[in-house]
Amino acid sequence: MPDRIDIRARAAALRASFEAAGAQLVETDVLQPAEVLLDLYGEDIRGRAYVTSDALRGEQMLRPDFTVPVVQMHMAHGAEPARYTYAGQVFRRQEDDASRPNEYTQVGYEVFDRENPVEADAEVFAIIRDALGNQPLRAACGDIGLLLAAVEGLQTSERRKAALRRHIWRPRRFRALLDRYAGRTPVPAARAALLAAEDPFAVAGPDIGLRSRREVEARIAALREDAATDPLSENEVALIDAILGVRENLPNALEQLRDIAVDMPAISASVERLARRMKALSKRGIDVDALDFEASYGRTSMEYYDGFVFGFHAASRPDLPPVATGGRYDALCRVLGQGRDIPAVGGVIRPDLLIELEAGQ
């Protein structure tokens, strides 16, 4: 584990490079209100957050990342466009691996700019890449927006599409729903019996739990509506599978996705946005032929990423987490903007991992 003094020094140098690129230095509180933030993080982060209770302020949490509090700050009183940088500690429990730190440093670069989101994606990726220096890292990217667009284009009910959108970041649950909606898995016996009953409450016991009878009735009605919905076509499921299976260098992935878009026009706009992003990356000196694209990339990360996602990995150290990650989070700005929204994208670097890799060379 690198010395804390060395980590702070490297973090300061990275932050200074982001300031030189035009970012404004910002600070956020280490202790954050938990009520809002826990709903915005994915299951992984929610399960690893340090949460405590304060008699006056309610539930509080140690900062698990910087993006959400920075967005809150910007949506409250930030100017447009804006670029921010920060450096500090984040806190996450490591229940499965005691060797990984539960407190570490992040240094970030965030861009809020509605003029040209594709150019902003390329800017953040290139600035993060340059800040990483000459480390032999494998770069990978994806686009959550492709899957969101594909789900939106399915010929099924809004309720089913909402469930699939909600579970895009939970690959196993997403697959289970997809198979169920396609009729590939049988209806559980208990649910079938419930739906077949003329009056489900006739044989029910006393009311228990926190749900009211009205809420239970609404849930049963929703299950009946879903049971009456036609299954997804095998062709639509095959097209979703084809998207999820795309794993190539960026130019080849783009061609594969264009072929899929012929049969699934709903993703056409996202595919062309990917093409414009590839050009923007190339203009900034990124070797797009060496950039891996994985359609499933980022699906187990924080749920607020809803577009371009990327990461830099040490191929020689598969035991390490990504050295740097980032992505687009437009929907997060809408949620926290209270009626305002602005496209935004950002990335973070782990200086401790950089130092560790350098020491191993």
TrEMBL record:
Location of the Class II Histidinyl-tRNA synthetase (HisRS)-like catalytic core domain: 9-195, 220-348
Binding-site residues, L-histidine: D65, F66, T67, R92, Q106, E110, R299, Y304, Y305
GO annotation, cellular component aspect: cytoplasm
GO biological process: histidyl-tRNA aminoacylation
Entry keywords, A to Z: Glycosyltransferase, Transferase
Alphabetized Pfam families for the sequence: tRNA-synt_His
InterPro entries from the UniProt entry: aa-tRNA-synth_II/BPL/LPL (IPR045864), HisRS-like_core (IPR041715), HisRS/HisZ (IPR004516)
Domain of life: Bacteria
Molecular-function GO term, any one: histidine-tRNA ligase activity
Keyword Glycosyltransferase: yes
PANTHER family: HISTIDINE--TRNA LIGASE, MITOCHONDRIAL-RELATED, HISTIDYL-TRNA SYNTHETASE
Protein name according to UniProt: ATP phosphoribosyltransferase regulatory subunit
Native source organism of the sequence: Thalassovita mediterranea
